[in-house]
Amino acid sequence: xxxxxxxxxxxxxxxxxxxxxxxxxxxxxxxxxxxxxxxxxxxxxxxxxxxxxxxxxxxxxxxxxxxxxxxxxxxxxxxxxxxxxxxxxxxxxxxxxxxxxxxxxxxxxxxxxxxxxxxxxxxxxxxxxxxxxxxxxxxxxxxxxxxxxxxxxxxxxxxxxxxxxxxxxxxxxxxxxxxxxxxxxxxxxxxxxxxxxxxxxxxxxxxxxxxxxxxxxxxxxxxxxxxxxxxxxxxxxxxxxxxxxxxxxxxxxxxxxxxxxxxxxxxxxxxxxxxxxxxxxxxxxxxxxxxxxxxxxxxxxxxxxxxxxxxxxxxxxxxxxxxxxxxxxxxxxxxxxxxxxxxxxxxxxxxxxxxxxxxxxxxxxxxxxxxxxxxxxxxxxxxxxxxxxxxxxxxxxxxxxxxxxxxxxxxxxxxxxxxxxxxxxxxxxxxxxxxxxxxxxxxxxxxxxxxxxxxxxxxxxxxxxxxxxxxxxxxxxxxxxxxxxxxxxxxxxxxxxxxxxxxxxxxxxxxxxxxxxxxxxxxxxxxxxxxxxxxxxxxxxxxxxxxxxxxxxxxxxxxxxxxxxxxxxxxxxxxxxxxxxxxxxxxxxxxxxxxxxxxxxxxxxxxxxxxxxxxxxxxxxxxxxxxxxxxxxxxxxxxxxxxxxxxxxxxxxxxxxxxxxxxxxxxxxxxxxxxxxxxxxxxxxxxxxxxxxxxxxxxxxxxxxxxxxxxxxxxxxxxxxxxxxxxxxxxxxxxxxxxxxxxxxxxxxxxxxxxxxxxxxxxxxxxxxxxxxxxxxxxxxxxxxxxxxxxxxxxxxxxxxxxxxxxxxxxxxxxxxxxxxxxxxxxxxxxxxxxxxxxxxxxxxxxxxxxxxxxxxxxxxxxxxxxxxxxxxxxxxxxxxxxxxxxxxxxxxxxxxxxxxxxxxxxxxxxxxxxxxxxxxxxxxxxxxxxxxxxxxxxxxxxxxxxxxxxxxxxxxxxxxxxxxxxxxxxxxxxxxxxxxxxxxxxxxxxxxxxxxxxxxxxxxxxxxxxxxxxxxxxxxxxxxxxxxxxxxxxxxxxxxxxxxxxxxxxxxxxxxxxxxxxxxxxxxxxxxxxxxxxxxxxxxxxxxxxxxxxxxxxxxxxxxxxxxxxxxxxxxxxxxxxxxxxxxxxxxxxxxxxxxxxxxxxxxxxxxxxxxxxxxxxxxxxxxxxxxxxxxxxxxxxxxxxxxxxxxxxxxxxxxxxxxxxxxxxxxxxxxxxxxxxxxxxxxxxxxxxxxxxxxxxxxxxxxxxxxxxxxxxxxxxxx
Length: 1265
What we know:
Blueprint: H1 2-25, H2 41-60, E1 74-83, E2 89-97, E3 101-109, E4 115-123, E5 125-126, E6 130-133, E7 136-142, E8 146-157, E9 166-177, E10 182-184, H3 190-198, E11 214-229, E12 232-249, E13 255-265, E14 270-278, E15 285-291, E16 297-299, E17 303-304, E18 320-324, E19 327-331, E20 336-340, E21 343-353, E22 380-382, H4 391-405, E23 417-420, H5 422-430, H6 433-446, H7 454-467, H8 472-486, E24 497-503, E25 519-523, H9 526-539, H10 543-551, E26 560-566, E27 572-577, E28 588-595, H11 599-603, E29 609-615, E30 621-627, E31 633-638, E32 641-646, H12 656-673, E33 677-684, E34 687-695, H13 704-709, E35 721-723, H14 727-730, H15 737-740, H16 743-756, E36 769-770, E37 773-774, E38 776-777, H17 778-781, H18 792-801, H19 809-819, H20 824-854, H21 865-874, H22 876-905, H23 913-924, H24 933-947, H25 951-956, H26 962-969, H27 971-984, H28 1004-1015, H29 1027-1033, H30 1040-1087, H31 1102-1110, H32 1114-1124, E39 1141-1143, E40 1161-1164, E41 1166-1169, E42 1172-1179, E43 1194-1197, E44 1213-1216, H33 1224-1232, E45 1236-1238, H34 1243-1246, E46 1252-1256, ...
Parallel strand pairs: 42-43, 43-44, 44-45
Antiparallel strand pairs: 1-2, 1-12, 2-3, 3-4, 4-8, 5-6, 6-7, 7-8, 8-9, 9-11, 10-11, 11-12, 13-14, 13-21, 14-15, 15-16, 17-18, 18-19, 20-21, 22-23, 23-26, 24-25, 24-26, 27-28, 27-33, 28-29, 29-30, 31-32, 33-34, 35-38, 35-39, 36-37, 40-47, 41-45, 42-46, 46-47
Helix pairs in contact: 2-3, 6-7, 7-9, 16-22, 18-22, 20-22, 20-30, 21-30, 21-31, 22-23, 22-30, 24-27, 24-28, 26-27, 29-30
């Protein structure tokens, strides 16, 4: 028996592994080793996962730094893929290798059938945040948030197969992120990575190398912008997209092939999937991530795709089937259509094959200025010397000429000359203390440290410079170098000199500063040259030049070199633009020319000849157009200098061959410098001379579209629902850039935390921005709990926020698809959480109130700008805690109101007029609303003034002198005024916008309100009802139990409404601390010359302020000047459209004029406060029109905020287009017992000031008599 027992035991022990293996792991697909699992699968899986986790943990502690240097085998890459549901798609891969060698693959497909692509390999221009190559610019606007992609160049249209069609295409895109980044590899699913490694054959330990080769991150978002071609105007696109940034071993040494798939469905679900096959190592490594329509970012956990069956012969199959865990998807070719969880979608699929070596790639060196750690201590250099290539020594123009001369081309000559270096300029200043004193005074005036007329001190400074005599050592150095240059000249020749300024930063890629400083032509003697050098230095401090630097955030006390160049006795001269200056078309060059010197062309004093050249893909040029100019004035060199003459007759200034020669040289220069050039040239005796070649700086200027949409919420689907309701109360105007990146983000994070139980710091999900207007995304912030059908609670929530029902069947269907149905337990936990918050609200408020009273941002005189900026940033967490509390009190208030309304409705599913009236009556019982104290205070002050007989005198003084008048003439009123500012001085119109001054900062705004109150004695009185009296007046409760519940809820509603307004006041109080901190920072930035005006700080984002502090950025200052001038940003005025709800991306358009039929006009809205009144209508949009208001008027407006409160006692009724039952207008109207109706669509268009109207608060309607 024992023998049989042991025989059976060992036999079973032997066969069990086979049974387990074949039954559980073995997949006899016969397709590849990738799907087959070997004997040691479980052991390999365990070891692979352990290795993956260890590897991920190591990278989790090391943030990806794209600025790290790398060797020839490594590279940095940026990849962007985008696709929409219309058929537009975009893909870009920008790979940067050692020595700034770069390779770009670009593909742009438009829904109209055009398909463009481009492959570029050459050296790129790389700075800290900008990558440039051949018309393509990628600029990082804010790390992990915003990226700008601009292209202006030639692309092949591969949709045209009959011939090679090359078109000029321009596109400007801004990528805004929609979620947190997923870091590679530590953000990827470890099981998926381990599975990829486990299924491969392990022969040695090299399988681990697959995890050590590349790292970085990817992030979802949207590309928003326009495409413009020769054959069509701006083509607006909004592409859901994914952006990846990778560093590590270059793909040339790593991959066999790779498949990238990016999918987007019509509900905003995005998936990025990468499948890689390594040349030596893992045969297939899978990873990816997804962002769901509910805004959660998740790693891909499972993939079933075989790379060896796809594109093995470098052809893409007709159909690619991909199974991703929890998301089924089928993709068909490129461009692909797909199904994702039964939703239709689109995809971009790219299959990459390995391309080893650089033998087939042609790279040419670019001309760059010479970089040195220590600037040589020389006073004068020759233009062709190596030292002259140093911009810090020779200035912008001087170093550019030195680089130009270094090309040694046979096609042109750069006239010889010398550069009086920056060292000479500094040496001259060091020896002249009086001159230094004048310059310091100039700097103090420019930076606001001293008060004086800038133009006068500039004139004085220039005169000081001109009177100064050059130091002997500088004179000797100049004369010696002039002699050296003359030695190469014909001894019989009379040499004339051109003396030109070459300031630091002049003629740079960022800023041209053309024409800001002086140029002197025709200097025949050394004395003239020396005087011209001094005059050039002096021109650096003319009012024009100083103001230019000041306006662009450049140092006022700048430095200058001077170029002294031998002049050419030109037969003709002019300017060549290697790209068309008007259309920016790179296939067209424009030449303007005149006889003699080019001064008349540059200055515009004469009408020149114009030639237009066409340039092909391979830089062949031909003449396609020309127009002869009048050329009535000509500047020529003579024996006595430069003279201007009048020319008669029509003849061309240059020949066609000379024009073509210029075109060919222009193409060479553009290739050498790596960017388009503005070239000054001259022909003398048939020889071409190049006098200057500076970059064209306007090609990547920000468009109005970009300035309008640069901070927009990234729209991934047109199924997003935005509204301006409620948000427009606190942000009535376009929000400033600073507010959008500070107060809006703080409020949004609080709303995210409350509504979704988590906060994504990289995107504003609850308070999106479009066209610089703050809105609310209702599914991310309000209707977060979704049921199988529309519940009564959802409809009541709409009444509270919007004033009418908006959550219809269409939006409900979108919510179900995007958010999914909310589990019952989740709903229960939400209700329990709200009850807990309500129980502790009062204690929390007391704690918050004490904190708010003590909160201050200590900014010491010795604090640097960076320290102040860091202190402000560190305070955001504290501000969010106050925003969290206000969000909680608002939610509790709405919760009790919704419950009360449900009780009033009893078993009814329909809301009747009686329900509205009872609801309004219930809310009208709320008292002790802090915002209602404001008009009470102002009426007290006005009453004191009236009683002391100063009404007429007070109303005639200017508001800015009002406080002084009160202190001197009416101390009692001034005392109340001072008390008012202590309690409410932190409030203002648009009070959440950092740009808006508080009443304490500008009391004249309050004085104006008091003057209005003094003119008209307010008689608004509210009949106060007790809770019992109010409950008795209710119509809908049918039994005593319902009335008892309503009575209980009424007390809770009263306290919660009052607490909500108190928490809002305290939140605004702490935001006023933030405002003051930014004001102080702006003042100091102006004092240090970083900003031309303190108000410009509001047009910078918080991150951009830090960039300006760290390093002067004239391009950024130019950009914010565009913002501040209203390009894309409208500071005043409200959205004239009365529509408050819109689908994503399509911002509400202005409605057409509304035709009003003869007869009585009646409009309906939601009743807020009971009562009926007949009176004059006063229709105004903003407080700027408040002077039209008269005592007893019915105010008809779009919406109100705290700034309107002082005028409520003058009114007999209120009608608003925007707002719900908890809006500011509704709350204050109930406090004063004013009949009020909200949500009256188009009221400001249908009624006019002066109309006699009847407002019925009980029925929620207004009628024109």
